[in-house]
Amino acid sequence: RAKELNRSSYSYFTREMGVEIRERVRMMHALRSAFEEKRLFIVYQPQIDMRTAKPFGTEALVRWKTEDGELIPPDKFIPIAEYSGLIINIGEWVLRSACFELVLIHELGLRDFRMSVNVSQAQFSHPHFLQSVANALADSGVSPHCLELEITESMAMTDPDFLVSSLEKLKSMGVRISIDDFGTGFSSLSHLQKLNVDKLKIDRAFVNEIAADTNDGSIAKMIVKLSQSLCLEVIAEGVENQEQANSLMAFGCNQAQGYLYSKPLNKLDLYSWLQKHL
Ligand code: C2E
Ligand code: MG
Ligand code: MG
Ligand code: MG
After folding, report:
1. Which segments within the chain are labelled E, that is strand?
2. Can you tell me the ipTM of this complex?
3. pLDDT confidence band for 142 (50 / 70 / 90)
């Protein structure tokens, strides 16, 4: 009886796993074709100085539109890109496109405007990564200090020595580094102190809490304090209402990204948005 049960649950699990793996493989092939057929595109979300309500930069966010016109969110396809290795080419394309776009923005007269680009773990640890950043800078001719690479806190935990030395090399190229989704990755504070980074991005989960009565944004406040004592810049993600913006400014955080100011915009909409908000 027990044996029978085991056997049937075994085949149940393998069948389920088979479905899951097939679905992943299907997504992977679809993603590869989408990339080759240029159905991936990039949107840009403005980053704001809340004191003046003026933009100083933007974050590049990748999008996938299928042939049926369905939009697949990056949270769904970035893991597949990572797992399949496609992230190396996709990430490099995002980085290069963002650099060339920033040059155009600079040519409008916005000389110090910044561009943030997300970098995934697999991309960062790839042997060609530093060279691909150097190439993107050289080929676009963009000022390195206007490019900001966003790494995640969990990356800081995997191979500390490799991370420290890679960050030093990126810093010597002149690019800026921020830690995305800060507060969600459980990295140790003593470790953070050793990393040569410029900025912390408060995860939107902590910004979200600010509105709730149960929690007056104590974690967001703590991250702002931490950034101040480490002499780092700080930006809040996912700011959706004025109440959150006011609390953040009261905590000492003046930079924000969120629907209160703008959702991520395609290239053309970014240009008209910038014209209205400068
Ligand atoms: P992220 O880097 O933390 O980006 C912020 C996410 O929050 C974006 O989701 C953005 O659209 C969303 N967001 C911005 N403001 C608000 C707001 O006020 N309210 C709410 N609810 N959401 C807001 P998105 O574009 O879906 O991207 C999700 C994640 O996918 C990104 O999180 C990033 O980790 C990853 N991702 C996106 N593009 C790339 C890329 O080019 N390369 C890599 N490696 N990862 C990427
Ligand atoms: Mg990001
Ligand atoms: Mg984030
Ligand atoms: Mg995120």
Report:
1. 40-49, 54-65, 71-72, 114-118, 147-152, 176-182, 199-202, 233-236, 255-256
2. 0.98
3. very high
Task: Tell me, in angstroms, the distance from the centre of ligand 4 to residue 271's CA.
Answer: 25
With 0.95 as the threshold, say if the pTM is over it: no
Strand partners, 200: 179, 234
| Nearest alpha carbon to residue 88 among 63, 125, 61 | 125
* CA-81 nearest atom, ligand 1: 44
Residue 192 tokens read as 């953070």
- 217-223 own/partner pairs: CB under 8 Å, 24+ apart: 217/244, 217/247, 217/248, 217/251, 219/183, 220/247, 220/248, 220/251, 220/253, 221/251, 223/182, 223/183
- What residues flank ligand 1, with Cβ below 6 Å? 45, 61-62, 73-75, 78, 91, 94, 118, 120, 180-181, 204, 237-240, 257-259, 264
pLDDT band at 107 (very low <50, low <70, confident <90, very high): very high
Give the per-residue pLDDT at 70: 94
Residue 274 class from Cβ within 10 Å (0-12 exposed, 13-18 middle, 19+ buried)?
buried
Provide the sign of the torsion angle of the four alpha carbons 185, 191, 197, 199, taken in this order.
positive
Of the candidates 176, 123, 183, 130, the one whose C-alpha atom is nearest the C-alpha of residue 154 is 183
* Under 8 Å between Cβ of 91 and 69: no
Residue 272: burial class (beta carbons within 10 Å; 0-12, 13-18, 19+): exposed
Closest ligand to the CA of 201: 3
Could you give the CA distance from residue 48 to residue 167 in angstroms, rounded to a whole number? 26
